Amino acid sequence: MPAHDPQATPADELSQARRLLNRVFGYDDFRHHQGEIISTLLAGGDALVLMPTGGGKSLCYQLPALLREGVGVVVSPLIALMQDQVDALRQLGLRAAFLNSTLDAETVHATEQALLRGELDLLYVAPERLLGERMLSLLERARIALFAIDEAHCVSQWGHDFRREYQQLSVLHQRFPAVPRIALTATADQRTRQEIIDQLQLQEAAVFVNSFDRPNIRYTISDAPNPRERLWRFLEQEHPRDAGIVYCLSRKKVESVAEWLTARGREALPYHAGLSDGLRRHHQQRFLREEGLIVVATIAFGMGIDKPDVRFVAHLNLPKSLEAYYQETGRAGRDGLPADAWLAYGLQDVITLRQMTQDTDATEDFKRSAHQKLEAMLGLCELTSCRRQALLAYFGETLEAPCGNCDNCLQPPQTWDATEAARKALSCVYRSGQRFGVNYVIELLTGKDDERIRRNGHHRLSTFGIGRELNAVEWRVLFRQLLAQGYLDTDLEGHGTLRLTARARLLLRGEIELHLRRLRRPERGARERRGRTVLALGEAEQALFEALRSRRRALAEAQGVPPYIIFHDSTLAEMAQRRPTSLGEMAGIPGIGETKLNRFGKAFIEVIREHPG
Ligand code: ADP
Ligand code: ZN
Fold first, then answer.
1. Ligand 1 pocket test: which of 34, 38, 58, 310 has the largest number of ligand atoms within 8 Å of its C-beta?
2. Cα(591) to centroid of ligand 1, in Å?
3. For residue 5, what pLDDT band results from cuts at 50, 70 and 90?
4. How far apart are CA 534 and CA 569, in angstroms?
5. pLDDT digits (tens, 9 = 90+) for 479-491
6. Strands in 6-160 per DSSP E
7. What is the pTM of this model?
8. Is ligand 1 within 6 A of the CB of residue 330?
9. What is the pLDDT of residue 539?
10. Which ligand has the shortest distance to the CA of 308?
11. What's the whole-number mean pLDDT along residues 234-254?
12. Whole-angstrom Cα distance, residue 593 to residue 91?
């Protein structure tokens, strides 16, 4: 690799970086702030990079590691992915290796020797390994181009990816003051950003904040009944053969949803903390290596799933904050092609999560913050305007116009005047003494002939049977909306007993009106089918694309790597459209650098020749 030339001007350096981008990675130009970030590191400065998933963070340290003398040391908590990351770099013709607890002594020794001899471009290291005195003194004897601290939000005690070792990484600054450092994360919130700067001593670093918009992700959130059936219809209509993730709250639900999907004919693997390490790893591996698999998981699954072609992320439970929702949905569509974030939620979610925020032994401050986060999440769900605008606004970003790629933009929801119905619901809660849960109150409203009601004498209440115009399902939706919008609250003991809030009184006194989303929204099936194929290929192109994919699968299997490490779908789609039949033409396809061209170009040209257009 070209060594760094101390005489070069910043502009020279950047054009050198661009040539390398083209030759090694096969891309024409930098994206977002990549160019500036690379310049910063080449000039010896530190950088903090906040970029959404799929934004292109890795190039920000890979290119300067190649251009500066010595090895780029990448700190990453994602041990399970290191092998794939290193394989991907080797496919590009780079000299990469990793050190973590999974290696045998011999491999460790060989890697250490390669490090000392200056034979590595990039070295991935687990944080606990890096912090050992042995590793640190080894690094002192090597030439280091830079330190990259990936998934830097792991320093944050507040996030669920917290890693204690990350808090000790400031030692890098102390022991290697002259080596530039770059910290990277896809976490968007302000507090985490500040924690990274403080904990890693990055006060001097240039900060690059990218837009957190993921325009290729379509957001859809619905409260209609029968979430499982709707999930099935969504999979059938939109993603019959695509890979994706379905998130559930509990292990039990993960298991049952995975079984249910499998029974209906979709291969679905469970993933949660209750499974053995071995089985979890196996399921993750299959998800990465095979095409079209679904993983049904708790939030234990996901950090660093850098599979680029996850086409959908579905939630069968409400995430507990917008941060979590953004992070989890962000695993869809890293490759920039269209992807879906689909969420179904219901009354029980709201009650369960409310109680979870109250039940913990945490401090009052923590509970209040958890409660506010849940409220913000519910706000997004009940919204009748553009979801993307609201989501980005929460992270401090302004999107000028509605996005046109969320459910509310595509199919504006209807609202109805729910003032009268809400008053009935609230007075029914009040008249029965604020001692009952949703189901009981709905029975009162609909005037159900019930033993318990008669025993309580509640059939004589003035509110008994005043709500027959709505059925039980519709009342449940209304109660959920009342809970979500803070007109009702549940007791702190966890019995689900409904209580009025101060806000409810305004409504009961007729001081405010309430307009809500229509209880039942028309189902997607009712409107014109999207029939959106991800890549918008014609019929002949589609056939060629499938043939290219199967060649890719064979090559990937032969080498024991995930297919996307050979080429991304977007690269194969370009091939199917442009039909290059010489290596020269092939070189012009995005995502094909020199090494991959030499390695795979012929094999794919063969497939193209076999499929005349
Ligand atoms: P992140 O780590 O930010 O989630 P990656 O580094 O994995 O993102 O990059 C996401 C995808 O974008 C990868 O497929 C990568 O090859 C591609 N990519 C990155 N930079 C560029 C670029 N300048 N031009 C084209 N594609 C790029
Ligand atoms: Zn929108």
1. 58
2. 10
3. low
4. 10
5. 988 887 889 887 7
6. 47-50, 71-75, 96-99, 122-125, 144-149
7. 0.84
8. no
9. 86
10. 1
11. 95
12. 10
